[in-house]
Amino acid sequence: MILMSGPCVIESEASLFRIAEALQPYHEDARFDFYFKASFDKANRTSLESYRGPGLEEGLRLLQKVKETFGYKIVTDVHESYQVAPTAEVADIIQIPAFLCRQTDLLVAAAETDRIVNIKKGQFMNPADMRYSVLKVLKTRGCDEVSYENAQKHKVLLTERGSSFGYGNLVVDMRSPVIMREFAPVVFDATHSVQMPGSGGGKTGGDSSMVPYLAKAAAAVGVDGFFFETHFDPACALSDGPNMITLDGLKQLTETLLAIEACSR
Question: How far apart, in whole angstroms, are the C-alpha atoms of residue 106 and residue 118?
Answer without folding.
Answer: 12
